[in-house]
Amino acid sequence: MIDIGGRVIEILHTPGHSPGHMCFWEKERGYLFTGDLVYKDTLFAYYPSTDPEAYLESLEKISVLPVKQVFPAHHSLDIQPEILTRMRDAFRQLKADGKLHHGSGTFDYEDWSVWL
Fold first, then answer.
1. Start-to-end Cα distance in the chain
2. CATH number for the domain including 78?
């Protein structure tokens, strides 16, 4: 936890994009700062340093939070919290289909995609 002038920020370890990736959760306001984990565009999960299974675990972790606003590190700030469950569900389906691994391709969704 970090207290910055009365605002408490929880640090969440959310590997997947990178082993040490973190998201920052401000529970009082419902703000989730997702860094490189969640944004509207192509998620790059094909690099050797990425881990698609860990990505799914991180999406499982953050998708249950009562998020009111998502703040990604890149692209549009017009991003609704429901994208968290859509991404989680897509990653779950990729896993069920045996495609949640490097080299399986690029998968397009409504307003985002993932390159594995």
1. 32
2. 3.60.15.10
Over residues 1-48, the pLDDT tens digits come to 899 898 999 999 999 999 999 999 999 999 999 999 999 999 999 999
Question: Is residue 52 in some structural domain?
Answer: yes
* Phi, psi dihedral angles at 85 (to 5 degrees): -75, -35
Type of residue at 86? R
> Taking Cα atoms as reference points, which of 34, 37, 42, 38 lies closest to residue 108?
42
Cα dihedral sign for 81, 52, 20, 64? positive
Q: Is the pTM of the predicted complex or chain greater than 0.70?
A: yes
Residue 69 maps to a domain? yes
Kindly tell me if the per-residue pLDDT of 77 is higher than 90: no
